[in-house]
Each structure stands twice: as C-alpha cells, then as structure tokens.
Amino acid sequence: MTWRTQIQDHYRKVWNIEPEPCPFSAGPVHELPLDFSVIKFPPHMTRQVWTYATCCMSQPSDQRPIELYMFSPLEADEVVELLVVTAHYHRTTAPLGLGHTVNLGRPWLDASACKYGLVSLPYLDGPSLEDLETASKALKFYWLLPVTHSEVEFKKKHGLDALEQKFDSVSLDYINPNRSSVV
Description:
Layout: H1 3-15, E1 20-21, E2 37-41, E3 50-55, E4 66-72, H2 77-92, E5 101-103, E6 114-120, H3 127-130, E7 131-133, E8 138-148, H4 149-158, H5 160-169
Parallel strand pairs: 4-8
Antiparallel strand pairs: 1-2, 2-3, 3-4, 5-6, 6-8, 7-8
Helix pairs in contact: 4-5
C-alpha cells in the first residue's frame, strides 16, 4: 500500500466520506513532493463545513511526519492555496509541529483578521484522526486553525495552553472568518 493510499484511507475512515481532488498549479508547487495534493471533503450529516486536507505533505523518510487540515464555511480555493503554501514552508523552510504558528501571508477567507495558522490538536476528531500507525512510521494529523496576530503574540508570551484556555472560555467560533480575536 502506498504512502498516499494510507493517508487517504485514514481520512476516509475517520470522516466516513470520499475526498475530492483540489487541483492547484500556481507558485512553486514543483518543489513539493510529487505525490503531494490537497483533497477536500464536502459538508455531511455530522459536520456542516468543508474540510480541506494535505495528502503527502509528509513523506516516509520524515522523522516526524505530519499532515494538516483546515475547515471552511464555504467551498474555497483560497483554503487550498493556504495549505499548499503551508506545506511548501514545511518542506522547504522549517518543519512544522504541534503548537507552531505560521504566517499565512493573507487572510484565511475574505477580509478575515485570521492571517496565521496554529498547528493544533484535532480536538473535534480526537486521537482517531490524530494518530496513524503504518508499518514503518507513526503519522500525526493536525488541525491548522486560523488565528489572529494578537492571538499569536499572546501564545508567544503566555504559551499554547493559555491561548487554548482563552479559546475554550469563549467557545471559539472557529468556522467564522469574521470572528473577533479572543485576546
């Protein structure tokens, strides 16, 4: 079974829906692994949002392989681009891991104040999504949560746990691109 097949099968098993490809050819995609892509999962009975996910952002030779996904209230090529850009950063500049933040370079959607992504645990899906054990490696699947500049600065000053407590205290409206910063 190929690396790609194992990743896609994992998403399919957890979310119980067939993914759709998201073709993307702009920018330096040629610098990403040949089998890399972004796939999307349409809204369904248990989750009324679009879910976009990397496939083969990680490679079997990676020390700590990770894949990322994002939610969107609407079908949006912009989210595909953000995942491609983030995967490119991860592969060519600095490996990402749990708790890291990345500057997305533009708003998540429309005029959103969320211009950063926080690599977070998959709180809505839990360990069934987070962990995939293959014959050769353990992969991690993390949520790339759109956050604001002030939330990133708060995390740097007070730590990830403090930021997540802020999110919990206000029941973060994670799917609203126009949400206010929690700090």
